[in-house]
Amino acid sequence: MEIRRFFADPNDISSDEVILSGDEFSHMTRVLRYKEGYKAVILASDGKERHCTVQKIEKDRALLHIDSIIQVDKKNASITLFAGDLKNNKLDFVIQKAVELGIDRVVPFVSDNCAEKKFSKDRGERIALEAAKQCGAVYLSEVEDIISFDEVIKRIPNFDQALFAYEFERKYPISKAAKGKNIAIIVGPEGGFSKDEARRAAEAGAKTVTLGRRILRAETASIVAAALVLNSLGELDYE
Ligand code: SAH
Q1: Taking the model in full, what pTM does it have?
Q2: Taking residues 211-229, what's their average pLDDT?
Q3: Full DSSP string of 94-147
Q4: Does residue 109 line the site of ligand 1, with CB under 6 A?
């Protein structure tokens, strides 16, 4: 039997026991039809895999015994992807791929040239959870609610470095620019950034970077930027 992975609330984990409730409990018992005695890997976004055995299934929670703990991964950097909102739910794809690659947080935003202004955080979180489980991640990426471009500008100083992907930049390739432990990547919507937005980002301290000579679709740009930054920080290497 395949041993499945579940994310638990860190507050529900003690030294030898895990309580699984909520959506992950439903997934375990209703969708996957887990029974007492089954094995599971429990994750809690702390780099550890807890190998467990289900001891008791109650009405709305399962109790699991922790058999062993393996430290799988240590994070050296935290990367936030700010992505302009996209039409036809194309941010779903961006979230899924960003999580697979190892981006820690995705923050959608509305800027001048956005054709779409709505975003469902719940749906985004569900996609992130599924992607994290499917790709064997030990950290659960966060998905935030949609914010304004003004808010993106305000948050730039919180990062060691903010990389602003701009198709008119010729000089700085993103892969050479990434430095620090807490990094932001900012990618525009289908309509791109206005000149004024690019100027404001630079004034707030962002570094304007290129993803190469070709103009990529917004969703491609997000994924390429994420992969290049993770790679240049060594986050795709085996330790
Ligand atoms: N200005 C164009 C293209 C927008 S591409 C238009 O109006 O249609 C969407 C986003 O992807 C851009 O805002 C930018 O953040 C990113 N992007 C695409 N190609 C890029 C490149 N070669 N270098 C840097 N960023 C790029």
Answers
A1: 0.94
A2: 97
A3: HHHHHHHHT-SEEEEEE-TT-S-----HHHHHHHHHHHHHHTT-SSPPEEPPPE
A4: no
